[in-house]
Amino acid sequence: MWRLLVVLVLLISQNQIKAQTSLSYEQARQAVLTAEEELMTGGHTYLNTQEAKVDDIFMEYKLGELAQGFRNADQNAAALHFFKGKPLIDRSNIFRFLQKMPKGAVLHLHNTASVSSKWVVDDLSYMPGLLRCTTATGRSTLSFRRTPKEHKCQSQYVLVADERRNSLDRQVYDRNFERLINLYTPVPELEYPTITKVWDRFQDMFDVLGDALAYLPAFRAYHWQMLEELYNDNVMYAEIRTSCKELYDASGRTFPRERTIREMYALNDKFVKLHPDFLGFKIIFAVYRGYEMDRLKEKVEEFRQLHELMPHFVIGFDLVGQEDNGKPLFTILPALRDLPPTARLFLHGGETNWFGASTDINLLDALLLNTTRIGHGYALAKHPILMNAVKTRQIAVEVSPISNQVLHLVWDLRNHPGAQYLALDVPVVICNDDPGYWNAKGLSYDFYYAIMSLAPNNAGLRVLKSLVWNSVKYSTLTEEEQTRAFRILELSWSRFIDKVLQGSVF
Fold first, then answer.
1. How do residues 35-58 score in pLDDT, each as one tens digit?
2. CATH architecture of 95-119+195-494
């Protein structure tokens, strides 16, 4: 009955409402607000007595922080670009809460941009034998190869250790080195005035670091650090997108991609044994979407071989790179039809501001291709039929707030379409995409924007708990693995709730 009354509130006058119902103005108003709250993500999530107490504590801090931001726009991290808001977030009690909170799984993370740039500088760049050269466009390329591959370098390779030793100030050298693999700038509006500018710089970074990460000792150290950073941020599982580059060692030997997968599997196995409450990670094979058809078919064949080798570890396929400049999904169907029937698709779709262009229509083709999840789905809100299909078919949208902001789709994250997805209870999982390239680490920063910018002001622990549980629900963990995951998550969540109530979080 109340649903009908809500409609009446929106369609007829107050006098008519009084004539047809016994609702007062205030009751009718509250009915609408209640209906919206129940429709939203988390609207039907149950909080026990202890969780309700934690929600009260959380909301006191959240509303206080939002009120401060309302009074002073310069202090409103929820509305600021991440590069400007990060110092405020780092001091935030909400962020401290989120860091301690179990966050379940991260389901959209590119391996070669997954580790904090500080670790790359402090550890990887100090590894013996690291070389650097410069291309004609001024981009640096890093490698450990004694006989470097063709990287279009115009300069000779020089040892990073020699450059650092000969520099006037080692700390200044390290800061400049970090700039090679970190988009951070205090003035993003000036340094990246267009989407093309920031994407060019962003994609260059993969070329800067890519060959260095294919060096076997660096590969092992880097991916171990990836797992450490996720685990330390209370993430329990990950699905990693990777191109599975061929590895090489100090002697110059190169290894087939099968070795890459086996190395990742061994790292995963070792880490899980040392951290029994971490469920490890699985691989989504990622291919550059700009390749010509013959190259795409070669990559599909490479994926098929790896998937057949380890079908429960190499679980799926995706196309990556700037979607606006890549080939539309519709044009590469012949290559995708060669995928093995047991492979799942995890397609980037609609990572664009365009409407009615080939990029946002990728969302339609992703759904027709039965994608398991949608990467970003930024343009989905402009396609109500597709959004309804996503909700009906329970296809999760991998929302990466900071990525969409840094890569120039939205400045104020309160205007991110993820707010609509939460309001309409579209399946959403919060992801971090490429945190190492924009001065982030782990998943907590993206969760900060999810609850402070995308969610309404009155949203608290119900929404957070729903997003955490969604991350396991929409993962590719088997039924048995999910059962174990939820058991571990329930235990860690309960311990977290107790810590908040004991005063050891805030």
1. 899 899 988 899 999 999 999 999
2. Alpha-Beta Barrel (3.20)
